[in-house]
Amino acid sequence: MTNRKSELETLRADLTARLSRYEAHQHREGGALDKDFEEQATQTQNDEVVDSLETETRSELAQIEHALARIDNGVGDECESCGEAIDPRRLQVLPYTTVCVDCAED
Ligand SMILES: [Zn+2]
């Protein structure tokens, strides 16, 4: 549980940093983008890509915040949908998930 929380906090920090790079790109604030991303952006040469990455990152962040809030409330390993325990192996692979595998498949 503690591990998962710190993992989520690390992930949150990463995504927050990434988001600020996207925002810098959108506002043309210098070349702060990382290499992979620059290549990707050059290939498509399209700000829509950054837009959609930004949207995706924001929704991932929201999910992480949500998972962290559930951990703080002591229900981090319970399925949000059915209330059953989420398989620890699933939490290891998807630390930000808040539903069990059965509910995720529905
Ligand atoms: Zn469930």
TrEMBL record:
Family matches, as PROSITE patterns: ZF_DKSA_1, ZF_DKSA_2
GO molecular function: zinc ion binding
Region (Disordered): 24-57
Domain of life: Bacteria
Residue span(s) of domain Zinc finger DksA/TraR C4-type: 76-106
Zinc finger (dksA C4-type): 79-103
Keywords of this entry: Metal-binding, Zinc, Zinc-finger
All copies of domain DnaK suppressor protein-like N-terminal, residue ranges: 7-71
InterPro entries to which the protein is assigned, alphabetical: DksA-like_N (IPR048487), DnaK_N (IPR037187), Znf_DskA_TraR (IPR000962), Znf_DskA_TraR_CS (IPR020458)
Compositionally biased residues, Basic and acidic residues: 24-35
Pfam families recorded: DksA-like_N, zf-dskA_traR
Name under which the protein is recorded: TraR/DksA family transcriptional regulator
Species assigned in the record: Marinobacter flavimaris
